[in-house]
């Protein structure tokens, strides 16, 4: 493509995006096409001659700078910065992040206890942890701990007592606890695990402590929400998805580790064809040793643009506004006696449900399922669901950059109308 073609295509693309933004309210919130429709419109194989600029832009250094900026914004301990023993790296997803730190933790433990112990290593997390951990654990036994004896009293956070009991039991039968994953902002209900006490338990048992803040990490750039990651000082690794709630397009998952050597020791390879003066002389951070793939995209550019174009102030306003809108929705639900708010709202997700009539033996699960279907079929709103303590729960998440108060109010009206039609 020459300069004039590039200009022409870029103008077309900008017009397309601007027109889309102008007319966004005329579209249904969910795509109307069937899964698989694109396959039929595209050739079966990739073009023979790729012409990618991305490989040319190896900007390792920008990534280091940007992740240090973000770590400082989150007030992470200094050892997560590249100036210390650790550092940050952009992974594609939180799922990849947990996999790489699990591999590092495994290597670290096996170096300590001997390679034969592989089958004895155990991973711990609450039953509210994202399924990506289960995927990363293939081959290692994983304990999914029930959050606590009375779930809702701890808002579905993992109880340190439950963790201690499980570790003590496993050690007694000859197993080796080696990895704990805590979550700040669980997928189902945005529960927050108590990092400080969990981290201390992990440390005293020589375990790797990973904190998954994929969604809620973004909120912690606001001083008033930073306390949700208090205790991160005990963590070996911390992850947040800039592509979830930080205005950065997919994919961009920021991972920090306390000890970068742990990653390098488990993931480093040094084949002849990759040797070059800079990496041999250890003059550069070789991110290939911090991740699964060899090649990498120039993901730091978009994070850098977001941080520079918005500035900290506007990013904090953005988060605060979403939380304010979610609070508004929570208030509307609470005022209608036909509904209940199921767990206290912490960030920008509201878990709620329509109350069933007295003698329903399925806790109103079908009713809420029907409500979800009815609401989503209008094409005006899209809500999702989860199951908490056996109850089918509706989830209203605020997270789109263009959402305003009037959208929340009209979404609530749709919900009320559909509930009236069902009851
Ligand atoms: N962790 C949490 C808490 C999540 O909510 C999610 C996704 O919703 C993930 C991990 C997985 O994120 P990713 O799609 O980046 O792998």
Automatic annotation (TrEMBL):
GO cellular component terms, semicolon-separated: cytoplasm
SUPFAM superfamilies (alphabetical): PLP-dependent transferases (SSF53383)
Requisite cofactors: pyridoxal 5'-phosphate
Pfam families according to UniProt: Pyridoxal_deC
GO-annotated molecular function: carboxy-lyase activity; pyridoxal phosphate binding
Domain of life: Eukaryota
Gene3D superfamilies given in the database record: Aspartate Aminotransferase, domain 1, Type I PLP-dependent aspartate aminotransferase-like (Major domain)
GO process terms (BP): amino acid metabolic process; carboxylic acid metabolic process
Record protein name field: Tyrosine decarboxylase 1
Family of the protein in this entry: Belongs to the group II decarboxylase family.
Modified residues (N6-(pyridoxal phosphate)lysine): 244
InterPro entries: Aromatic_deC, PyrdxlP-dep_de-COase, PyrdxlP-dep_Trfase, PyrdxlP-dep_Trfase_major, PyrdxlP-dep_Trfase_small, Pyridoxal-P_BS
Taxonomic lineage of the native organism: Eukaryota, Viridiplantae, Streptophyta, Embryophyta, Tracheophyta
Keywords from the UniProt entry: Decarboxylase, Lyase, Pyridoxal phosphate
């Amino acid at each position: 493509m020459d300069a004039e073609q590039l200009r022409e295509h870029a103008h077309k693309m900008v017009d397309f995006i601007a027109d889309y933004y102008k007319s966004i309210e005329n579209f249904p919130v969910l795509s109307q096409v069937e899964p698989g429709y694109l396959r039929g419109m595209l050739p079966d194989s990739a073009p023979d001659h790729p012409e990618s600029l991305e490989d040319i832009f190896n900007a390792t250094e920008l990534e280091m700078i940007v992740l240090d900026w973000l770590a400082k914004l989150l007030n992470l301990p200094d050892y997560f910065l590249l100036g210390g023993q650790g550092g940050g790296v952009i992974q594609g997803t939180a799922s990849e992040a947990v996999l790489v730190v699990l591999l590092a933790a495994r290597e670290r433990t096996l170096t300590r206890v001997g390679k034969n112990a592989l089958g004895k290593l155990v991973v711990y997390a609450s039953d509210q942890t994202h399924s990506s951990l289960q995927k990363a654990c293939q081959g290692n036994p994983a304990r999914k701990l029930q959050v606590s004896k009375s779930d809702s009293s701890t808002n579905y956070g993992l109880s340190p007592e439950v963790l201690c009991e499980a570790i003590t039991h496993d050690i007694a039968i000859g197993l080796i606890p080696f990895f704990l994953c805590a979550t700040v902002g669980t997928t189902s209900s945005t529960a927050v695990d108590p990092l400080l006490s969990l981290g201390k338990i992990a440390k005293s048992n020589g375990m790797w402590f990973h904190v998954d803040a994929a969604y809620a990490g973004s909120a912690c750039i606001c001083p008033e929400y930073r306390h949700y990651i208090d205790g991160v000082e005990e963590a070996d690794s911390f992850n947040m998805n800039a592509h979830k709630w930080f205005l950065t397009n997919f994919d961009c998952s920021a991972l920090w580790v306390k000890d970068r050597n742990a990653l390098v020791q488990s993931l480093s390879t040094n084949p002849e064809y990759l040797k070059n003066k800079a990496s041999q002389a250890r003059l550069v951070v070789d991110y290939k040793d911090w991740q699964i793939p060899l090649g990498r995209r120039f993901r730091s550019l978009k994070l850098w643009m977001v941080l520079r174009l918005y500035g900290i102030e506007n990013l904090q306003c953005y988060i605060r506004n979403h939380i304010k809108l979610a609070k508004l929705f929570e208030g509307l639900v609470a005022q209608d006696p036909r509904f209940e708010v199921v767990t206290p709202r912490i960030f920008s997700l509201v878990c709620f449900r329509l109350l069933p009539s007295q003698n329903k033996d399925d806790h109103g699960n079908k009713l809420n399922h029907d409500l979800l279907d009815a609401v989503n079929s209008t094409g005006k709103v899209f809500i999702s669901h989860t199951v908490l303590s056996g109850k089918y729960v509706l989830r209203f998440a605020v997270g789109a950059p263009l959402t305003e108060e009037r959208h929340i109010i009209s979404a609530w009206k749709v919900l009320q109308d559909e509930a009236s039609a069902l009851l």
